[in-house]
Amino acid sequence: MAPVVWLRSAVSVLGRFPALAGVTLDASPGEIVLVQGPNGAGKSTLLRACAGLVPVVRGEAIVLGIDLVADRLPVRREVAYVGHASGLYDEMTVADNVTFWSRAAGLSRDISAASVMASMAIAARLADVPVGKLSAGQKRRVSLALAMSRGSMLWLLDEPHAGLDADGRDLFDAAVRHAARELGVCVMLASHELERAESLADRTITLVGGTVHAAPAAENAPAPQVGAVEPQVTHVG
Amino acid sequence: MAPVVWLRSAVSVLGRFPALAGVTLDASPGEIVLVQGPNGAGKSTLLRACAGLVPVVRGEAIVLGIDLVADRLPVRREVAYVGHASGLYDEMTVADNVTFWSRAAGLSRDISAASVMASMAIAARLADVPVGKLSAGQKRRVSLALAMSRGSMLWLLDEPHAGLDADGRDLFDAAVRHAARELGVCVMLASHELERAESLADRTITLVGGTVHAAPAAENAPAPQVGAVEPQVTHVG
Amino acid sequence: MWGDAALVAAKDLRLELRSRVVTNQIAPVAVVVLMLFGFGLDADVGVLQKVTPGLYWVTVLLMALLAIGRSVDAEATAGARDMLRLSGLDPAAIFLGKAAALVAQLLVLEAMLLMGVSLFFHATIKGYVLVFVAGLLGTVGLASIGTLYGALTGGTDSKQTLLPLLFLPAVAPVLLGAVRAFEGAFGTNPHPDDGWPWVRLLGVVAIVYTAVGTLAYGPLLEGSDPA
Amino acid sequence: MWGDAALVAAKDLRLELRSRVVTNQIAPVAVVVLMLFGFGLDADVGVLQKVTPGLYWVTVLLMALLAIGRSVDAEATAGARDMLRLSGLDPAAIFLGKAAALVAQLLVLEAMLLMGVSLFFHATIKGYVLVFVAGLLGTVGLASIGTLYGALTGGTDSKQTLLPLLFLPAVAPVLLGAVRAFEGAFGTNPHPDDGWPWVRLLGVVAIVYTAVGTLAYGPLLEGSDPA
Amino acid sequence: MNSPVPEKFAGTSASRSTQVLGAVAIVGLALVTFLGLAATGEDQDQKNYYRIMYVHVPSAWLAYTCFGICALASAMYLYKKTQWWDLVAGASAEIGVLFTGLALATGMLWGKVTWGAYWRWDARLTFTALMFVMFLGYVTMRRMPAPFEVRAKRAAITGLIGVVNVPIVHFSVNWWRTLHQQATVLRPDTDVKIDGLMLFTLLLSFAVFHVLYVWLMIHRFRLGYLEDQVESHGLERAIAERQAEARGPVPVGAGQGSGQ
Amino acid sequence: MKHAGFIYGSYALTFGAVVVYAVRIKARARKLAKDLAPKDQRWM
Ligand code: HEM
Ligand SMILES: Nc1ncnc2c1ncn2[C@@H]1O[C@H](COP(=O)(O)OP(=O)(O)OP(=O)(O)O)[C@@H](O)[C@H]1O
Ligand SMILES: Nc1ncnc2c1ncn2[C@@H]1O[C@H](COP(=O)(O)OP(=O)(O)OP(=O)(O)O)[C@@H](O)[C@H]1O
Ligand SMILES: [Mg+2]
Ligand SMILES: [Mg+2]
């Protein structure tokens, strides 16, 4: 199967700093890939680049069949991304937030806020509490539940375990496994909780200084099909 | 030795919600106490109450010899607290932030920003980067380094491991052990990474629904000395 | 796209309903500002009446700035911007929705302010239709410029650019046109033209900026947080 | 305490230097407001000159509102407030430092505005000393009242906007005194008194509110985060 | 602290004293209305409009009293830190807002008939309006949810600052010579200028309004106390509920806290 | 009387507002007191 994420010497720059300094990477449908590495290695930037939030300025990047170098905007609505910050509206209640973001994502009106909340076992009493009042873990659960409800084929999760309690972790891991195994979703997660994350992942990639340090398998898939893109090799650094 | 943290049926309210619903707890100098429990159990609120950031409205609370029910303000400058959010000024550089907060805490001018940064192995190149640009783990390191530099006898750390890489964790654990063993600092940490945290802690307390669910030892220390406080038992509920 | 715009507008109005900042807090402020103007210029009633349209629109501008601040703050955190970008909402829809919510809030404020002005400044409205049309068009112009301006200033890095200076030439014609139109409507205009010609200016500006916003909001939302 | 105050003031000014919100965002708004009045009243220079002091201070007031909002925003996130509370900084020092930084920023704006006014409104300054003293005292009054109320209303769910509701009424005497003093200095005062008596009022307000702020800032900072 | 409420008054904020005060206030107001609208004669230049005075002036003065008491109670709160003083301050300020509003409204009606406009840019009018807005802010602030001590301390400081407006309003006519009536009764030189019956009516009205104030204060204070009580009972209940939640089945993964 | 409406109106407004306010606080007190035991209803 064609890789969902296909990067060849991808470079991304934050300010003037090349947070990704030439990353080559394949991830296939149904695969759970753990991205690990020291602080500041570029893990978050890698996930954000795949989500189309950060431009890839050198190299090649094709995600979900979309060429990010040519136009990264279309990929955004296709991925499910959870970053370090929640981005929910603090002043709006949990239910209102869930409803708004589900509608915005074009989810069917049949999917109720309650059912989204239930997917991460968020207590019903919290539905009417403003998100700003939630505990860290409760907020995290809302973000994860929203992301997982999008029906995306690529999940990009930045330290998803952070803040979750034991139950939450089990629930989350089960959801990820189910998505990968049953639905063929490709999951990339960055994490520092190596034991937990490695037991969940099929494969681990170590990022150091913006480049892949050690990947167990050589990345050798051919470029996936894209609209009208000639694979041009522009290796940098 | 008199306990550093001495709580008896302490209640704290957020909005109208009793996030702490009667917590009884002792923590002694040199002790590392892990606070665990499900999301929303009140771990963060407990740490914030001990730091004097959230009022204790029922019960008794004496921290570092200061009666929090009578006046919780004096305790604030005595503790080292790191919460979920960093609170650093995003627009100011790391060095400027470190300098400002160290001076504010009354640290000697001899202690340079570089030496504070070194305590959590923060790369020197980051000194001139605005804090808002740092990666999650880098930011966490700055917060921890600042807290640990205050020379406080009570460290209140909310999920300190979150965001730290393997090196950072080792560094942090070593610093905590050193502070507790050599300097007699009392450390309370909330965490969901039970394995790591339990290996660091001397004792684990489980908080569920705002009350201590299972503490291995009965809390039976007498009230520590305080200015002019009669220990009055005001159990609630 | 219209559905998305309605969704966003409803969301912004819901945020307002929850906090009631505009109705309960910005509105009284508007009244107080008017009073300060009135008292600051009390010297003679003639001057006061002459400057009433100007004071009215300056007050509206201040209210608009506060309201825009609120509208921008809602999406100000890095996380919220990401969510919005990933949401699948058409940027044009986001722009239209946010501007519409702003128009709704400002119109309520302006109606109140108009009552205040006629009570306290003894302004007598001679042309109701003119006031209504000029008010509406001026508000649409302000709201769309404001929403654009918000996108420019919302991201952290753009604060260091001079982009916000664009606000200046954009908002000046709106305020000017609106003031002139109101001078016509209040009968305080020394010139014989009755204000309607200015309405055309307001209409053009409203249309142009709504169009510009609809097209440019995407790139702005995009470019406003380079980190 | 003075050292702490200087530390806080330096920090606030550094934040402004990095973000340039006052220079890039607030100053243009001030220019728009002045232009608006200028165009609105250009027909008659006599009126324009008569109301110049009033317009000047009303504009200063608007800018002060925006700048105070900014100063409050710096500590608006939950984390930043916690840090400040735990910092061991004397609240009085925080107050003095924040107010001083605000005074510095406002003085720069006022100087620019003064040039604008004399250029566009043909205002001729007759009493430079009076303008300077009245401007300084008025600004100190504005800044201390603003910082005080910023703490009073910051951190609540409705931060920027409860602020003006409480701030504007308190600020009325400042505005009044400053306008009268400037009328004296610009020679537009119809009354023969030359404006100096008003400086006394400004001085009293500045001193009273600086004192109140120094004493009350602690409890206010304390109380401002109800959650 | 709590003494039993007589059976008769249970479930209300009334008591023997409020019944008496209420009766006195009603009789007094009836008398003031009679004297004010019928018994007193016409004024030379004001004709009959001046009759508004008997409600306008006492309202304004009572507002001063209200804010004065609010400030006093605020200071006492900061000194004693008791709920009683906080409640007194809050009750007094709220009543003060009511009467400032009435002084404004009646003044505007009066202005319409004498000046021909509801509003003029006069120092007293402006500062009265500002005082109104300020205490409106005070009352709003008291309603924002916050822990008791936090809210009370903030309110106390705001109340103390707000009272500065009272002398400003009072002396504004001397500082800025303007339209509004200069002091007629409370003049520095005690040479009272108005007719005997008019003066009596005005003073009576003043007294009656203050009786009304005491009556309102008692009720508003009791309401404030009830609000605090309900809140604290709600808290007890919430604490009990949360403790029950804790005693319930231990969530998986959360219960095996063992320590060493 | 000329302008009788304004004169009577001011009296009516004053007394009316006081009555409305009084009725409202008394009603609210009644409502809140319902949930409290008599001993908890009064400060003194
Ligand atoms: C909106 C309009 C008005 C407001 C806000 C207002 C406000 C006040 C206030 C606050 C006072 C108490 C002054 C003090 O003793 O400190 C007062 C007193 C008084 N007002 Fe007015 N007023 C208004 C209109 C008028 C008008 C139109 C008249 C009659 C021409 C009037 C006649 C008086 C008189 C006779 C007193 C008693 C003065 C004294 O003995 O000090 N007021 N008013
Ligand atoms: N404007 C800038 N100037 C200099 N360096 C920058 C700038 N913006 C970002 N960086 C650097 O880019 C890197 C971003 O890395 P990223 O956030 O992807 O790290 P990460 O691997 O997710 O780290 P963590 O484990 O801490 O989350 C950091 O090293 C950061 O210091
Ligand atoms: N205004 C409010 N209304 C209702 N509930 C609230 C309010 N504010 C806080 N809470 C609740 O109080 C609790 C706060 O808990 P706290 O943040 O201490 O949890 P925690 O144990 O740190 O959880 P986590 O593991 O997720 O960090 C949460 O359950 C939250 O939902
Ligand atoms: Mg990261
Ligand atoms: Mg927590």
Describe this structure in words.
The complex is a heterohexamer, with two copies of chain A (237 residues), two copies of chain C (227 residues), one copy of chain E (260 residues) and one copy of chain F (44 residues). Chain C is 80% helix and 0% strand. Chain C is built from eight helices and no strands. Chain C has helices spanning 2-19, 21-40, 45-74, 78-86, 91-120, 128-154, 167-186, 196-223. Chain E has 260 residues and is an all-alpha fold. Chain E contains seven helices and no strands. In chain E, helix 1 (16-39) packs antiparallel against helix 7 and helix 4 (123-143) runs antiparallel to helix 6 (165-175). Chain E starts with 15 loop residues before the first helix and ends in a 13-residue tail after the last helix. Residues 187-192 and 251-260 of chain E have low confidence and may be disordered. Chain F has 44 residues and is mainly α. Chain F has one helix at residues 4-33. The interface between C and D is large, with 46 and 44 residues. The structure holds protoporphyrin IX containing FE (HEM), adenosine-5'-triphosphate (2 copies) and magnesium ion (2 copies). One adenosine-5'-triphosphate sits between chains B (14-15, 17, 19, 37, 39-45) and A (126, 129, 133-138, 163, 165).
Return the structural class of chain F. Answer: mainly alpha
- What is the residue-mean pLDDT of chain F, rounded to a whole number? 86
* Beta strands of chain E, count: 0
Residue stretches of chain E low in confidence (pLDDT < 50, at least 5 long) are 187-192, 251-260
Structure summarized in a few sentences:
The complex is a heterohexamer, with two copies of chain A (237 residues), two copies of chain C (227 residues), one copy of chain E (260 residues) and one copy of chain F (44 residues). Chain C has 227 residues and is mainly α. Chain C is 80% helix and 0% strand.
